[in-house]
Structure formats: structure tokens, C-alpha cells
Amino acid sequence: MIKVLNLKESIFPDVAVCELEKEIEISKLSEINVIIAIHGYGSHGKGGEIKKEVNKSLRMLKNKHQIIDYIKGEQWSEVNEKYFELTKLEPELILHPHLNNLNSGVTLIWVKK
Predict the structure, then answer these.
(1) What is the pLDDT of residue 105?
(2) CA–CA gap between residue 25 and residue 112 (Å, rounded)
(3) C-alpha 81: how far from its chain's center?
(4) In the 3-class helix/strand/coil scheme, how is the chain assigned residue by residue?
(5) Are the CB atoms for 72 and 55 separated by under 8 Å?
(6) What percent of the chain stands above pLDDT 70?
(7) Distance (Å, whole) CA 64 – CA 15
(8) pTM given for the model
(9) Alpha carbons 50 and 13: distance in angstroms, whole number
């Protein structure tokens, strides 16, 4: 199962990170395997800070083995080895509207069960 989480509406980057971390913990206990975090890509300033802090937090969570992995939207393509692993787990990711055109405004989080 896939969950889409819109973090662009967060007032501050640290609030967005807290919301994301809470959703990751909730997802571990549910049927959700992948979270698509929408953080924006920074064209208006705010999205860039949220993206930066989200990716910093995800790097830390991966290092602590709290998530399996994360893939930045701009890296989501058939060239990425994780593409095939995740699309096998969740086939609807192949045509998901948030994942087209190497979208740098999103990040996929592979939830650890």
C-alpha cells in the first residue's frame, strides 16, 4: 500500500520532518510499504528548505535502520535498481502521477516492517 503525504503545507521544515517521522512510525504498524512525501523542490524558497531537511532526516533514519531506503524523485527511473524492487512490491508506482518526469519535489520512503 502507498501513502501520499503532503509536507508542502508545513509552516516550518522541522514541523514537516516531525510529521514525516510520525507517519513512518504509523506506517510500520500498517499495510503501508511506501510513503511518497511531497515536499516541493524549492522554486519559491520554502520547498527547498523542507526538501533539504526531509532528506537529512531520511539519511539519518536509513543509517539507523529505521527505514529500508529512500529515493529522491529525480532519481526515480528504470536506471535505479530500487525502482524494480519497489515496483514489484507496489506495481501502481509505475504510473503514479506524482512520480512522472523525474519529479524533484517528492521523495519515496521504503518503510521497514
Answers:
(1) 92
(2) 9
(3) 17
(4) CEEEEECCCCCCHHHHHHHHHHHHHHHHCCCCCEEEEECCCCCCCHHHHHHHHHHHHHHHHHHCCCEEEEEEHHHCCCCCHHHHHHHHHCHHHCCCHHHCCCCCCEEEEEECC
(5) yes
(6) 95
(7) 21
(8) 0.92
(9) 5
C-alpha cell at 10: 508545513
Per CATH, domain 2-111 is 3.40.50.300: no
Counted residue by residue, the chain has a size of: 113
Pairing of strands 34-38, 2-6: parallel
Amino acid at 45: G
pLDDT, tens digit, for every residue of 86-107?
Answer: 999 999 999 999 998 889 999 9
